[in-house]
Write a structure and sequence with these properties.
single chain; alpha/beta; nine-stranded mixed sheet
């Protein structure tokens, strides 16, 4: 990044100076600890009357060293024994001074003081540079925010220009059609009034209509492209700005003591270490603000701790859910694309069912987040797609290395459009309101119910495992519930692989008609009406098409003819 290169260039001199000060200070500190700091006296014990035999008493092994202060200590001891301190050290009269050995490092205190000054200067310089780095870091992201907003405005202006071009072209084509209608009847002065060739006029009108539809399709594709680029810039802006305002707390290890306390008094908690074996499929249910997305991400981090996986999010609200972007997870937000992606996942499951064990072991694990299940049910053209995905991915997906993690505000089987027995194939992680709803089956004086009602962020696991209390993985430390504001803690980094599975794209949706339908239209000998296409589509494909699919197929048949 340019700001980082600039900061490194500006920081070279300061870094070198800080290192020099630190090295010099450490060197002085080491030097201040070396050598002797005080003068010492070398002496031996020899009798005063045997000076002629002094060498006998002052051999090398009988010479001693004592600090100079101790040698003179007897000068400061009171003569009265009553006032002499206990343990007073007084040399014998036989102690004979041989020489004074001067200190090798008498200025050690000064060197230590110099070392302290240099190390303090280095620390202060480093602190100032870090403060400047923080200021430049924030200023850079503010500038980046401004640039991204400007780019988004330019894209919006381009889209407005394109919309205006569509309106102008439409009016122009309408004028041509009107003019052709007026020309169908003309007067011939020599022969009188006669009918113009109606068949020729109808062909011209039909050609003009085809041209209008083709132009509209081109403009729609251009608008879709601009909207996709705008969404991409907005997503990038949200990701970068969120990195400044809200930083995720990632960790490499799970605090087992806090998350898996086992039995505490009368309460027994679920051991999250069993998650790897229990998670055939997972449903995370809870009200808004209960941490559904963060818990789902925490689960994915735990499942990929030892083995990486390809990760994909299907979230209609991905434009406001910045957690996917912060963790680098590819997200699909359009309802038609989500519906198409679920079909591709089911096809992937079918293809893996034909592999043997050795071949399946070579396939990567796939983790799919399916968020806002109720919204998908209300918006899919074929509601059976979500039911089929929940039923098949939940019951047999894990066997073929596909893990489906569904997120929804309700855990009710009817709301999920599946049976209660099928829902129990999943490990249900109930949070807050959903957890309190499950706790109603316990008596009022049951300590489990009291525990759930008292917590700001509660959690119960059930479904594929017996119902039991659990510690909320990402919000258990908070004492007060906030619908917005409490960021997740202790998220595990997801060990991701690059996506290689087939992904739904707008081109797939625009050309998602079966070749048998085109062959059927050819047999009719004319372009079928949209209603006729809709009826035949349901008959041949087994499900109702969306209005967009019918419109695009009809335009394709018109333009082809």
């Amino acid at each position: 990044m340019d700001w980082l290169k600039l900061f490194k260039q500006q920081n070279q001199f300061s870094t070198g100076l800080a290192i020099a000060l630190s090295v010099t200070g450490l060197g002085l500190s080491v030097y201040s600890l070396s050598g002797t700091k005080y003068d010492v006296i070398e002496f031996c014990f020899k009798p005063k009357k045997n000076n002629n035999r002094a060498a006998k008493y002052c051999t090398q092994d009988k010479q001693y060293i004592i600090p100079e202060g101790y040698w003179r200590q007897e000068n400061y001891v009171p003569t009265n024994p009553r006032f002499q301190p206990q343990g007073t050290f007084i040399l014998s009269d036989k102690a004979t001074r041989l020489r004074t050995i001067p200190a090798t490092n008498p200025d050690a205190k000064n060197w230590a003081l110099g070392s302290l000054i240099l190390l303090s200067s280095s620390t202060l310089l480093t602190s100032k540079r870090l403060q400047r780095y923080k200021r430049e870091f924030v200023a850079y992201f503010e500038q980046l925010k401004t640039d991204l907003n400007q780019e988004i405005q330019v894209n919006e202006q381009q889209r407005e220009i394109t919309t205006h071009k569509i309106a102008v072209e439409t009016e122009y084509i309408k004028d041509r059609v009107t003019r052709n209608d007026q020309i169908t009847r003309i007067k011939d002065k020599s022969e009188g009034e006669r009918e113009f060739d109606r068949e020729q006029a109808e062909k011209q009108n039909q050609l003009a209509e085809y041209q209008r539809l083709l132009q509209l399709a081109k403009f729609k594709a251009e608008i879709a492209k601009l909207e996709a680029e705008e969404a991409k810039h907005r997503s990038e802006a949200n990701r970068l700005l969120s990195a400044v305002s809200v930083s995720l707390e990632l960790t490499e290890e799970i605090d087992y003591e806090a998350l898996c306390p086992g039995k505490v008094g009368e309460l027994e908690f679920y051991d999250w270490r069993d998650l790897v074996d229990d998670a055939v499929g997972i449903i995370v249910a809870g009200n808004s603000g209960s941490g559904k997305t963060s818990v789902a991400v925490w689960v994915a981090g735990w499942l990929t701790k030892d083995e990486p996986a390809q990760v994909l999010a299907l979230d209609p609200h991905a434009n406001v859910n910045i957690l996917w972007g912060e963790l680098g997870i590819h997200a699909i937000s359009d309802f038609p694309l989500i519906e198409q992606q679920l079909i591709l996942l089911i096809e992937l499951l079918d293809s893996r069912r034909e592999l043997n064990k050795q071949q399946l072991d070579l396939e990567p694990t796939i983790i799919v987040f399916g968020d806002e299940i109720n919204a998908c049910l209300d918006s899919f053209s074929n509601k059976e797609i979500i039911e089929l995905a929940l039923r098949r991915l939940g019951s047999e997906g894990r066997k073929y290395k596909i893990i489906f993690i569904a997120l929804n505000q309700s855990s009710n089987a009817n709301d999920l459009n599946i049976s209660a027995q099928m829902r129990n194939n999943y490990l249900l992680i109930a949070l807050n309101a959903t957890a309190r709803q499950l706790a109603k089956q316990w008596k009022k004086d049951d300590p489990r119910k009291k525990h759930v009602d008292e917590l700001a962020y509660s959690c119960i696991v059930s479904g594929a495992v017996p119902e039991s209390l659990a510690i909320h993985p990402t919000h258990h430390t908070y004492k007060q519930f906030k619908k917005k504001g409490n960021k997740p803690k202790g998220l595990l980094q997801i060990n991701q692989l690059p996506l290689t599975i087939p992904l739904a794209s707008p081109e797939d949706i625009q050309t998602d008609w079966h070749k048998d339908l085109v062959a059927w239209a050819d047999q009719l000998g004319k372009v079928p009406t949209p209603d006729l296409i809709k009826e035949k589509w349901e008959e041949m494909m087994g499900h109702m098409p969306s209005s967009k699919q019918v419109e695009l197929l009809h335009e394709y048949l018109l333009n082809r003819n």
